[in-house]
Amino acid sequence: MPPGTGDVQLSVSQNIPVTGAVIVSTPQDIALLDARKGAEMFRKVHVPVLGLVQNMSVFQCPKCKHETHIFGADGVRDLAKTLGLDVLGDIPLHVNIRETCDAGQPIVISQPQSDTAKAYLRIATEIVRRLPTPPA
Q: Residue 40: what are its φ and ψ, rounded to 5°?
């Protein structure tokens, strides 16, 4: 769902069976406010929060490989500790993510051995691991 805890988000979480929620946020303070509200909303409507994902966690210059934390470094980690949740992983800010998605070939398909694709796959594995086993 998009950011926020408005009527749409509340109605969806109350009227559609939801097995679990994953909160995705950049590490900047203003985004973390929405992430906190989202986690609190899901708890109020008894939807388990499976964990948090730190999006755009770091930018690595494609030329010199210098890493810059454009949106801050550990905001999602700090929020996770405060909320008693786990961080499922980090997604870097990388031009290949945008380029491959725009081309209709997400990075996990077009460049599955890349570090970026592996970050997505690790997060997906963590999410699946935390989901309850479906009834037989």
A: -65, -40
Q: Among 136, 126, 135, 66, which Cα is nearest to 90's?
A: 126
Helix, coil or strand: residue 54 = strand
Burial of 119 (0-12, 13-18, 19+ CB in 10 A): buried
Distance CA(65)–CA(59), nearest Å, equals 9
Predicted TM-score of the model (pTM): 0.88
Mean pLDDT for each 10-residue chunk of the chain (136 residues)? 65 82 94 92 90 94 90 95 97 93 95 95 97 81
Please, which residues have CB within 8 angstroms of residue 21's CB and are 6 or more apart in sequence?
13, 38, 39, 42, 47, 48, 49, 50
3-class DSSP state for residue 20? Answer: coil
